[in-house]
Prior knowledge:
Chain A has 90 residues and is α+β, with helices and mostly antiparallel strands. Helices cover 18% and strands 37% of the residues of chain A. A five-stranded mixed sheet of chain B has the order 2-1-3-5-4.
Amino acid sequence: MQHPDHYFIERRGGFAGLKASGRIDGDAMDPDDRHLLETLLDSTEPLAADPGADRYTYVVTRENALGSTTREIPESVMPPTLASVVAPEI
Amino acid sequence: MCARDGCFIVPPRVLRRLAEDESIPVETRQAMRDCVAVEEAWRGLRNAQTEAIQISLLASGITTLQVAGVLASVPAITVYDCKNTRSLPGSPVSNPGKSVDVTAKRAFDTTRGVVDFYRQCFDRNSVDDAGMTLMSSIHYGVRYDNAFWNGAQMTYGDGDGQIFLDFTKADDVIGHELTHGVTQFTAGLDYSDEPGALNESVSDVFGAMFYQWRRKQTVAQADWLIGADLMGPVAGTKGYTCLRDMAQPGSRHCLSPQPSQYRDYISGGDPHENSGIPNHAFYLAAKSIGGRSWEQAGKVWYAALTSPKAHRLMTMSEFAALTRAAARSLFPRDTNVYRGVDDAWTRVGIPSADTSV
């Protein structure tokens, strides 16, 4: 059974160092992307940063009736459709 | 100088496991398999680079790199077109220096300019000082608002056209990204906390110097802005003229304002935030010394970055000490240089620990 999950996504880093953020409800996600994101959020494996410099990092927080889970996800494994949820804060 | 890499990657075993998950779309799983393959290829490339650098060390101890006969005396420059995908490196662009794609030609020409800049000003042969081929990928992603160095190559997005323009349009961006390569092969600075801020600052400093060198500007003529040529119409409408300003890091015309004083250091902050402190120190030093930034202040910063005492966890205070020492040793008769460097760090809140001066 699916919980009514809400996801807050913040993008950090990049050459500009300009933060961007957005929010999406679990029901609005592509089911495959949602499954991938859940796998990343619930993984106990370390998700270390992409190599190099000026890469984006996504800080994803899942909130539902069970509580809140936050994880930093490197851009190389972030589903592009979810990465596009964020808008720069200017 | 050996390659010192403080960077990490997503564990291949995680990607492999996800790639076997049949509930994930076929294309995504293939992308993950590709990532694993690229990671292995990348590791091989890095090993080859390390061997080349070790050869250069050996050669420089015995004779010259040219006599060693195994290293490129001038780096090759290649450009690849991602065609708005996120697949690196993309398709090779043949003869990019004469390409009808202005982005490809610009990436090629400006990269060649950075090669000349490092050779002429710092006697450095490519980012690894061993003639490493410089690879750039353009048209990365769709309206991608970024440029990055991935440990082996540069990658440039087209920008969204509103806030950011094509990232190859800015000389300082290309100088910045290539300098990440130089840092990787020299001090090997980490990418968090104070070393991360220094890593970013060094890229801004040499990116700004490259911009000034191309235009033959004195420190008084330079605008000291980073990313001014990237600003799109929406950013301009809102009053933003640059990403960062080394002269006034906290100014409102900066899309990404920064602290300029060590007392305002943001604990746990992004490297692009805290880089404002050493950025401002370089600006103050260069302005105090006068002339052209790459002739004295730049040589001092380069000597610190490439010093055998530089290390991946270096603090701002340690880096400042290396610049103070370099100012003395490189310009022993021109005390104006040491005074300028010392005063610059003091003014951003990092005074000398040496009480004898």
